[in-house]
Amino acid sequence: MTLALDTLGRLESEAIHIFREVAGEFDRPVILFSGGKDSTLLLHLAIKAFYPAPVPFPLLHVDTGHNFDEVIEFRDRVVARHGLRLEVAKVQDWIDDGRLEERPDGTRNPLQTVPLLDSITQHKFDAVFGGGRRDEERARAKERIFSLRTAFGQWDPKRQRPELWNLYNGRHRAGEHVRVFPLSNWTELDVWNYIEREGIELPDIYYSHQRDVFLRDGMWLAEGPWGTAREGETLERKTVRYRTVGDGSCTGAVESDASDIHAVIAEVAASRLTERGATRADDRLSEAAMEDRKREGYF
Amino acid sequence: MSDLLRLATAGSVDDGKSTLVGRLLYDTKSVLADTLDAVHRASADRGLATPDLSLLVDGLRSEREQGITIDVAYRYFATPKRSFVLADTPGHVQYTRNTVTGASTAQLAVLLVDARKGVIEQTRRHAAVLALLGVPRLVLAVNKIDLVGYDEVMFSRIAKEFTAHATALGYTEDSVVEIPVSALAGDNVVEKSANTPWYSGPTLLEHLETVPVEPDPHDAPFRFPVQYVIRPRTAEHLDYRGYAGLVAAGTVKPGDEVVVLPSGRRSTVTKIDTADGELAEAAAGQSVTLLLADDIDISRGDLISVAGNEPTVTDELDATLCWLAEKPLRPGARVLVKHGTRTVQAMVTDLRDRFDEQKLSSVDGPASLELNEIGRVALRLAEPVPLDDYSFSRRTGSFLVIDASDGSTLAAGLVGAPLPLLENGVESCTGGSTATPDNHALVSPGP
């Protein structure tokens, strides 16, 4: 009998270790949960880490109001199934009472930062689990597993602590918090392979389906509460799926026939585009778009 | 053979490290089209004729502006033979801090030198830090070999000098490999070069794909720092009391007799639980939950060990510190020590010596330990802690030194003196040495 763990076994074991460290050292942790694949995976690992006890943390969703219905329905179903507590911070509430202003381009992804930081302060969360991975983007490649944020939620790359062995230093001053990324060492393909191995359910929109979409800036966008095709853009019925799920106004679909997990894995393995590059308008704003948003307190 | 290799890179500024890493990613087709397009665009914006592959890895704005790497970056790539987690550590000012970080989990390190300059001071320092941290294998990439006309004699001289240095640090000859490469032109990185017919060894990637990876320390005595006590208190699991943790060393089976430290109470493992069901055995690297026969008081911070081969429980220890903070360490300093899952107050009672990396010798009784310096200290702890020597167990012989006031990490701590040279000193770093290969080089890193 061999006891050597394979790659997925090592990644799972590392993530479980991280969840348990946080449970042991922090008073008020929370898991960011949107119903997307990375946060669904995060929750799956948290459940495994504390089995047979329930997950000792609540969930937080920063809802842009531009979500796909299928994802919200999935989110609520998962929360109910596992008997979890979910806090929802609605960007719309912040817009309605004037704390935030709608952007001219209509995209709400950058608007998530303020409701996120307000919720962290209000609930006194001291550890915030996110599904970020280092393979996603260059600024994320330098992120720690335990990432210290100032009282203003800001990320200062120069103040990050060296991370040695598997000893994580979660000490922070009152008002500061730590973002924790248990999936740091996973790649997109690892995520999909693990979802297949564990039989994890995801929202349907990750698999191919028919949808009315229009082409903008090289991305297939769906119509929804965030808007529809403008002058010169035409709505077409296409067979598509989503590789990432975020704010509907800036998350693009990819043309795909991959209708099940095996087909998705084959497609991801053969893809010539990164998932963010293929489907996220917000990362295309500048060479350092992600770094700038992280500094401001984004996930 | 393991399907995952964790490696770190090290080298001084301008040795072309980012370019080498970029080349590895590029030639293994780990870079996707949109990322590559962005690099092509940025290179063209800067007026460069060919794409600058270092832009693939330099992530932060100030890095791209200054053309240097500031922080450790992690890169992921895979070939049909193996997956790789690469810690890319920058080589300038704060080099020790970054190299120590990258090396603490690495199973292999790639050190770069410029073929025109050969083995320089910083190469020797890096190698010493890698040896101290117990990185089991080294590769010396002799880069820019094209700029010395692919000269075999030049390469052999550098290789010989480096082997002698690594041997003096405790490496065996078969754990060190030198490869002539040009990251810019691609020679011997992924593709075998036609320009070095005199070189019969593997390319860098071939070596990374086939080098034996030391398994987790399964033969070592069982060590299990308790992270968390799982008590569901549900109708179904009313009396369930499980100790959650990651096996740090060795293996465990139901029926094994164990000791809980520091209390010294004994019990027997009744069950190894996971969300996927019970296990017949668990080994180093696995996250599991242990259930014991006796209802004894165990909480986070305790260590469960095999009975009969236990770590020393002590409140006084000798340790080696890699000082990582701007603020210097002086004797008498009060700090926190985080070892395994336990954090205790501590005082630095004595600064024994400082390691002179350039001479590879030690200086007795320094007044302080400054940023990036390595030295031996005596520590007194507020309560006894179960400790292994670092050279015996990397996971249970390592600790963090933390500033109690602002929570920052001040130092990487290693129980004992893992680098024999710290005690003995050597006259020459290039001559033959009598230092014997050291066990710690064979201990595998954390998960």
List keywords for this structure.
heterodimer, A: 299 residues, alpha/beta, Rossmann fold, 2 domains, six-stranded mixed beta sheet, four-stranded antiparallel beta sheet, 9 helices, 10 strands, globular, B: 447 residues, alpha+beta, Elongation Factor Tu (Ef-tu), domain 3, seven-stranded antiparallel beta sheet, 8 helices, 22 strands, disordered C terminus
Short description:
The complex is a heterodimer of chains A (299) and B (447). Chain A is an alpha/beta fold and 299 residues long. Chain A has 9 helices and 10 strands.
Using the 3D structure, state the CATH architecture of the largest domain in chain B: 3-Layer(aba) Sandwich
Q: Could you please say which CATH topology of the largest domain in chain A applies here?
A: Rossmann fold
Q: What overall geometry of chain B do the principal axes of the alpha carbons give?
A: globular
SSE order of chain A: HEHEHEHHEEEHEEEEHHH
CATH homology group of the largest domain in chain A:
HUPs
Q: Helix- and strand-based class of chain A?
A: alpha/beta
